[in-house]
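User: Please predict the structure of the protein below. I'd like the answer in structure-token form so I can feed it into my own downstream comparison script.

Assistant: Understood. Taking the following sequence of 680 residues as input:
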Amino acid sequence: MKIICAWMLAASVAGTAGSTIAAQTGPLPTAEMQPGIAKDISRHFGSAPVDPGPIATDLSPALTSAAVDMAIREVADWQLEQSQPYFDRIWTWSVLYSGFIAASAATGDPKYLNAMKAMSEKFNWEERNHQPNANDLSVAQTYLELYLLAKEKHPEWIAPTRAEMASVIDLQTLSKDTAKIPWWWCDALFMAPPTWAKMYAATHDHKYIDYLDAQWAKTSDLLYDNEEHLYARDATFIPKRGPNGKKIFWSRGEGWVMAGIARTVPYLPKDDPRRTFYQQQLREMAARVAQLQDPVTGLWHASLLDPEHFPAPEISGSALMVFAITWGINEGVLDAKTYTPVITKGWEGLLQHVYNDGRLGDIQQTGAEPAYFLPGSSFTYGIGGFLLAGAELKRFAATHPSANQHSAMAPDTVANTDPSVYAKMHLPSPKNPQLPDLILVGDSTVRNGNGDGAHNQMGWGDAIGEYFDTTRINVVNRAIGGRSSRTYITEGHWNETLKLVRPGDIVLIQFGHNDSGPLDDVDRARGSLPGTGDETRDIENPVRKRHETVHTFGWYLEQYVHDVRAKGATPILCSLVPRKIWVNGNITRQTESYRGWTQAVAAKEHVGYIDLNEITAEKYDALGESAVEPLFGDPHTHTTATGATMNAESVIAGLKALRNDPAEPYFSAKAATVPPFHEK
């Protein structure tokens, strides 16, 4: 009840200046959604605090066994402690149990497996209801996995489940009292088929496979959309349309089906004629959901075709899809080259919803359709999906050692080298409205993720505050990782930042790292045309789903300059910081491209210019390769906190070198130790 009251309070202040929750998460749960959330919490499925604390900073998105193992353990340990006293046999718990079994196999830690055996013994290896439906039968997946894993077989462990299966196997409908087919809702394809397939593996009785194949075919015929290659949640959703007029496809529902395939196929007979059907359906669904993956967060929205009305990433559906696609790669069902970037982005996105204590957030409450939830919303089945994904990714990491070349940690893919920038990105506003502002605009080399040094990476904008007296000026870092001079404008970030700019403010602008990409690729569509002229190119933007006229890099810089001047503030252009690329003992400069174009625009517009590329490059040259190496948190682009401080001092040196330095009145005592830059 306390949590409900807190949500009601959050909802009551939505839209006001103090409503940070609404600003950070999008739509809050409605009054109609509250009773369901309260019921889930009362049944100990999970919790949804208004303030879940800080996001974890100790998890790496690298697809290595050690990194994935750490993420599995952090989430599994927290969840086991929270939930073990309340274990039950309802489906919400069953999915978590499947995750614990996978976590034990992946990490080699028997405590998760032992907890599952204790749970099974507590419930005498029985289902919660006689003549169980798919949800009731889901707990038997764990009973059967324990049976199959045990060296010494115990028929009594699976005897109750065999008896219950016998009670329904001859029914052509859900029960004697309804005309509904047994698996009339798509979630059922995760809950029941793996149990029937595992029972075949335990007994070698083909009747279980015959039942499975027949019932899945009925469900597919009823619910599978052959145009969208997605499942309706149930037949009532086939005619429904969402707020945007499009069909409603629930990400968790698609995750249930895809994960159900991944958990069923391994136990089918090799000669099962339906095996190719399941594999083909996974291929079709994987191709479709890959198209619908959010290019920024790497995750999926609760309503797959309506990210506008459901803007928050939803973790339970996303985790199940990452699990299923990874399994498909591991088993050779899906093409590794095509789908490795999908699971890489997905895993990076999932990790941005793990909190310091191990809580996994942004999990939608139980239901049958897309809904709203708080960032701290954490429920058992979502954790189960995450653990399944982690276990499969660890298997992937062991057999694909080169996978990290697809990772956002790779050089020249700056949009994703910035894991904290995703759904938990909170851009700051001026702390003291009575003071002037120093506003920073740029990419991840200025502000990496949330600016907290996560993953040993930090931008110079989050180190520069120490060089200013913050009792006299606000330092407001509005840079966003992965953005180019173009996309910072077209995504609406510049418009929001410009609202903060007042007469007398100083605005530092640095772009160039991300402008060289394609104009219209399906992942980012962030490139600008080279040069400083008025050339344009018309495209159909596949990310923003609209027509767009793309301009040159210099044209976009001029827009920033003009807008800042119109506000009565002072714009200053900075060339991009150098990457760690050595040629003949020297750091490479970018004179003929973004560095030179920035300088050209500054000269044309008669604004201040700080040549960060040259200032920092000279420092690197003087230090040498071995000394520069620890200044970077990735191979080429993103600095550590120490490297960020060096770049911040380059900014101060560049400011001091300006003929009329507007920042000089606001320098701190630390800035006094930095000499002005004098080009060699």
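That's the full token string. The first strand starts at residue 46 and ends at 47.
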